[in-house]
Amino acid sequence: MFCLLKEKDPQRIHPLDLEQWEFYVLLTRVLDEKVGEQKSIGLEPLKRLEVERVEFGKIGETIDSKLS
User: Fold this and answer.
1) C-beta neighbour count of 51 within 10 angstroms
2) Are 1 and 28 spatial neighbours (Cβ–Cβ below 8 Å)?
3) Per-residue pLDDT reduced to its tens digit, 5-20
């Protein structure tokens, strides 16, 4: 799971506001296969993998579906 605070205006940032976040779900297996020992990844390279952007309320459901 990757989380990105997408609000750019420092005056408006409110970390508890879930609308300001983007959530991405990706199996660890896929990340290991594609980037190996790499310790960091940017958003664009992440999007080229089998990542799925999901709303906060659907995170659990999405993870469950990827694991089954």
Assistant:
1) 19
2) no
3) 999 999 999 999 999 9
